[in-house]
Design brief:
It contains 6 helices and 24 strands. It has about 425 residues and is an alpha/beta fold. The protein has 2 domains: about 130 residues, Acyl-CoA thioester hydrolase/BAAT N-terminal domain (Immunoglobulin-like); about 280 residues, Rossmann fold (3-Layer(aba) Sandwich), CATH 3.40.50.1820. An 8-stranded mixed β-sheet has the order 10-11-13-12-15-16-21-22, with helices on both faces. The chain has a 6-stranded mixed β-sheet with strand order 2-9-8-4-5-7. The longest helix has 24 residues. It is globular, with a radius of gyration of 22 Å. It comes from Nicator chloris.
């Protein structure tokens, strides 16, 4: 029997779902190297490889068989060949640009454990999709809003969420889309560097975000009375500002967000919140040329920088802070703790804070490979994001469950029974 790769699901799975990988038809205790390859929409190649030894019966099941040292990872890691994918081009991050097409994953089995691949024994292809069958993708161009709404299958209404990314700009849809697969109506909202929106992060007007909140609150497919906000990085402090000043927000989840306004002035009616000061002299650049910017921002508790602290005590919602304790973009844990102190000092409910040791800045949906360093648009050079790949991957899986449980609890009133795995 010739060796063959057995996948479950066989041909196609959703990107945030586990994929079972096994090889059958090998020789007893045969040594092989498994390699995965994936190209993003720009054609950039990501690869991972791992060394294995088949069992006595010639079977190799990644759920039961640990990877041996010498590859991209070692130990019992059934999904290691996905989360350990690394770009062949330096400082390149895996993002999904078109959620309507899947990523194509190539799997290959080679003979032996050499530095160069041995003879090819088996290969297979698998589609990693983003859009579940029946989920509707609706481009939204109403008033000033530039967004995409994802609606789950069925009649609805569904709990509604607005999803914001960070300083990368544009309109990333993949997290919103994956979340809609789980039963939420999710609006991926662009706020700069997209179509006719401002090209640069000079200042933001909260009236734009208010328009998006009202759009969701009035939508027949969105279950009231309030909606949720989900923001990563700069999107996090925008969500805190929205929750602090706008009506109709019930739950706000931040992934490595800030409780101070960062990067651009924020205006709403006659209020202006200045951006937190930056001292570029505190940026450390290593021999590799990669910058560590963790100390660049000023402390929002001191001096004039206190004006950049967002008055989150005005918010009428519950908060969830997801924190990567090895975030090198900024001090996410400090921001979460100070936000919690401020809320409690004003008699508000203590927020949920979930901390992940060994997780970096880009806590993405499950099985996205960790991005250790990439270009930072504001600093104009590659910066380190932090994180240790194995711990970061585990954090992404758990955070994804935490976020869904938080929104289910506060937007539908139904507990989901999810508890932290860490």
């Amino acid at each position: 029997m010739a060796p063959s790769i057995r996948l479950s699901p066989a041909a196609r799975s959703l990107f945030d779902e586990p994929l079972a990988i096994a090889v059958q038809g090998l020789g007893p205790r045969q040594q092989v190297t498994l390699r995965t390859s994936l190209r993003d929409e720009t054609g950039e190649l990501f690869q991972a490889r791992a060394r294995y030894q088949a069992s006595d019966d010639g079977e190799l099941d990644l759920a039961r068989c640990p990877a041996l040292p010498g590859g991209s990872f070692a130990g019992l890691e059934p999904m290691g060949l996905l989360w350990a994918l690394q770009p062949q081009k330096p400082f390149w991050r895996l993002v999904k640009r078109d959620v309507q097409s899947p990523f194509l994953l190539q799997l290959e089995v080679f003979e032996g454990h050499g530095e160069r691949p041995g003879r090819l024994l088996a290969q297979a292809q698998h589609e990693r999709a983003f859009l579940r069958d029946g989920v509707r993708r609706v481009p939204v161009r109403e008033g000033r809003i530039r967004a995409t709404l994802f609606l789950p299958p069925g009649d609805g209404p569904f709990p509604g969420i607005i999803d914001l990314y960070g300083t990368g700009g544009g309109l990333p849809e993949y997290r919103a889309c994956l979340l809609a697969n789980h039963g939420f109506a999710v609006l991926a909202l662009a706020f700069y560097s997209y179509e006719d929106l401002p090209k640069e992060m000079k200042e933001f007007h909260l009236e734009y975000f208010e328009e998006a909140v009202n759009y969701m609150l009035q939508h027949t497919q969105v279950e009231g009375p309030g909606i949720g906000l989900l923001g990563h990085s700069k999107g996090g402090d925008l969500c805190v500002s929205m929750a602090s000043f706008l009506k109709g927000i019930t739950a706000t989840a931040l992934i490595n967000g800030s409780v101070a306004n960062v990067g651009a002035a924020l205006r709403y009616k006659d209020i202006t919140i200045p951006p937190l000061g930056i001292n570029r002299k505190r940026i450390k650049v290593g021999k590799s040329g990669i910058a560590d910017i963790i100390d660049a921002l000023n402390n929002p508790l001191e001096g004039p920088d206190q004006q950049s602290f967002i008055p989150l005590e005005k918010a009428e919602c519950c908060f969830l802070f997801i924190v990567g304790q090895d975030d090198h973009n900024w001090k996410s844990e400090f921001f979460a703790v100070e936000g919690s102190k401020r809320l409690q000092a004003h008699g508000k409910e203590k927020p949920e804070i979930v901390c992940y040791p060994g997780a970096g800045h880009y806590i993405e949906p499950p099985f996205f490979p960790m991005c250790a360093a990439s270009m930072h648009l504001l600093f104009g050079k590659p910066v380190m994001w932090g994180g240790e790949p194995k711990a970061h991957c585990k954090a992404q899986i758990d955070a994804w469950q935490q976020i869904q449980a938080f929104f289910r609890k506060h937007l539908t009133g139904k507990p989901s029974g999810t508890s932290s795995k860490l």
